[in-house]
Amino acid sequence: MNDTVILERPSPSETPYEKPFPDIFPSIGWVALFMVFQVLAGVGALIYALAMDNGAREPLDVMRDLTSFAVPMIWALVLTELLLLGLLWLYLRKGGRFAAVHLDRWSKLPLAHTVGMAVVLIGAGLAFNWAYGEYIVPDIEVQAELRRLFAAIPDTPLKSLLLFATIAVVAPLLEEILFRGLLQNSLS
Predict the structure, then answer these.
(1) Cα(19)–Cα(37) distance, rounded to whole angstroms?
(2) Each residue's pLDDT tens digit in the chain (188 positions)?
(3) How far is Cα 12 from Cα 18, in angstroms, rounded to an integer?
(4) Predicted TM-score (pTM) of this structure
(5) Which residues fall within 8 angstroms of residue 100, CB to CB, at 6 or more apart?
(6) Is the CB of residue 38 less than 8 Å from the CB of residue 79?
């Protein structure tokens, strides 16, 4: 006797229609909102720096003087990125969207392996970035401007923590959700 079981697909009328998530246009909209928030952070930091300057200098002079512009810029970036993370959390927590973009699990590996791999990969990325900026393209103006920006931030524990939170925690988390979670999944 043959024990083969044949499974039949349900007809389209028997299965409910589910719209795939994420869709391309809302994903692009979230990326555009991210860009708008970045511009608003820059404008807000400039307005704050100008207000603190009491109109003594022209806006371009205030922007060139990184000692008055760098810290408000970092604060503005952190605040706008946290705001966007909050909005994304509200958006993704409905209807199983976290699971749809695979944010319900970080890895199939055990936690210790995942963290270890993350530390090694981040360390390798930082080492590559340092070598790239120091030896391959040391004369690019962006590198010099970034050095000036970081040098203009006062070396206090709070400012160092803020800078670390911005560069190493909030921005990567936001970018992963936007680009890998939403945009890449919608393109696939």
Answers:
(1) 29
(2) 555 555 454 444 444 445 667 888 989 999 999 999 999 998 898 888 888 888 788 878 877 777 777 888 888 888 999 999 999 999 988 888 888 887 776 667 787 887 888 788 888 888 888 887 778 776 667 667 777 777 888 888 888 888 888 888 888 888 888 888 888 888 87
(3) 11
(4) 0.68
(5) 21, 22, 185
(6) no
Instruction: Supply the DSSP string of 126-183, one letter for each residue.
Output: HHHHHHIIIIISTT-HHHHHHHHHHHHS---HHHHHHHHIIIIIIHHHHHIIIIIIII
Q: Are 149 and 70 in contact (CB under 8 A)?
A: yes
What would the two tokens of residue 51 be? 């207000």
CA 38 to chain centre: 11
Give the whole-angstrom CA distance, residue 177 versus residue 174. Answer: 5
- Radius of gyration from C-alpha coordinates of the chain: 23
Give CA–CA dist 180/182, Å, rounded: 6
* Angle, CA of 66, 59 and 161, to the nearest 5°: 30
- Cβ 123 vs Cβ 117: under 8 Å: no
Which one, of 176, 187, 186, lies nearest residue 34 by Cα? 176
Alpha-carbon distance 34 to 88, whole Å? Answer: 11
